[in-house]
C-alpha cells in the first residue's frame, strides 16, 4: 500500500530511503534476490523498473553484488548491516577535522547499554 502524505496524495520515497529498503530486504535473507523478489518484499506499489534502477545504483556504489542466473540477475548485499554502518562511521570520522572530538560527541549520546557494550569491546571481552 502506498504511503500518503498530509493531503491524501501518494508520498514519494527518496532514493536514499528506497536504497535502505532494498538493502533491508537483502539483509533479511541469506539468498540472492531478483528485482521481482525485492519488489514483492518492499511493496508499496513500487514499480519493477524503480527497483531495478535502485539495484543498479547500489551495484555501482559497490553495496550489492550481482549473481547472474541465466537472463535474470539476482542480488545480494556486499556487506552486512553492521559492516556497512561501521564503514560509514569510519568515513564520517575521516571527513571531519577533529575525529577525537567527534568520537567524544558520539559517546555522550550512547544509551547505557551501548556504553557498556563499547566498554566491553574496548576491554576485549566483546563479541
UniProtKB/TrEMBL annotation:
Domain of life the protein comes from: Bacteria
Record flagged with keyword Secreted: no
Signal peptide extent: none
InterPro entries, per database record: BlaI_family, WH-like_DNA-bd_sf, WH_DNA-bd_sf
UniProt entry tagged with the keyword Heme: no
GO molecular function, one term: DNA binding
A Gene Ontology BP annotation from the UniProt entry: negative regulation of DNA-templated transcription
Keywords associated with the record: DNA-binding, Transcription, Transcription regulation
Family of this protein: Belongs to the BlaI transcriptional regulatory family.
Protein name as annotated: CopY family transcriptional regulator
Organism expressing this protein natively: Streptomyces olivochromogenes
